[in-house]
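Protocol step 4 of 5: obtain the predicted structure for the target chain.
Materials: sequence only (see below). No template structures provided, no constraints applied. The aim of this step is simply to have a reference model before the mutagenesis design in step 5. Sequence pasted as it appears in the construct record:
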Amino acid sequence: MVIQKLVLENPGGADKKHLKEAVESFLYELVKNGQVWESQWVLAWEGDTLMGYIKTPAVEAVMPQHHSQSVTSLQREVEEIAEAPIKWVEIENHNSQDVEWHQEEYLYLFTHCFDDSSPLCAGSNGKPIPLYSLELGSKLTHELVNWMTTYKTLDSLWLNSGPLEMDAYKQIAGIKSQFYKDTKTLQLQLEDALSKPVFYYLLRYWGRSDNEFDRLCPSCGGQWLIDESIDTDLFFKFNFKCDDCRLVAHIADSYDDERKARTGEYQQRS
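Step 4 output (structure tokens):
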């Protein structure tokens, strides 16, 4: 993650509210294009200069060569209103190294309600892959960002333990849900675009204490155990992986209510 400061002067004396709204629209489009991490920023005026601190995947993420047509159009609109160019200043750089996703054996989809990075991760080390670097095109990038937003909403509903707890859990941890069906469609689109296997991390919170490692792939019923002794403190080290169904998973976290363990388990078709 890189924190960058957006700086926009206003030498033409444009209406500050109107200009700020135009910049907000520009930033939201950057989020949709995978160039900015989430929409958590604060814009403020200092005299006649508008400034904001923005989380980006990399320093070059906001460069024009990565813009979609809509981002380019909105940037042009902002700069015409302000009569000045948008400037970016690097403030903090927490990136250790770039993710060379082309070298990965496979990628996987995962996010959570506290995540503000990318939902597509490298199979070898779990690092989120900046969406702008994938060159997926606007439509598919937007669909991937929308998928992330939906997952985070469902995850939040589950963690809040309210009346929708189990409904939300079944959406992200089961294979009969509409969300799972939508995920499979997205996986196929990503594989076609990237020429790379794309797996889905299937959440498993409730499990069975006596035979958790014996469970079958919930989709095809095949054997999918990789290794019981894998150190799952490293998230990207999975206990289960089904190459045919493009699923990865860990063993369960809780065994206090095995009635709920049915979600995410293989059900024999009658």
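Step 4 remarks: Helices lie at 16-32, 69-82, 138-159, 165-173, 178-194. The CA atoms of residues 2 and 58 lie 6 Å apart.
Proceed to step 5.
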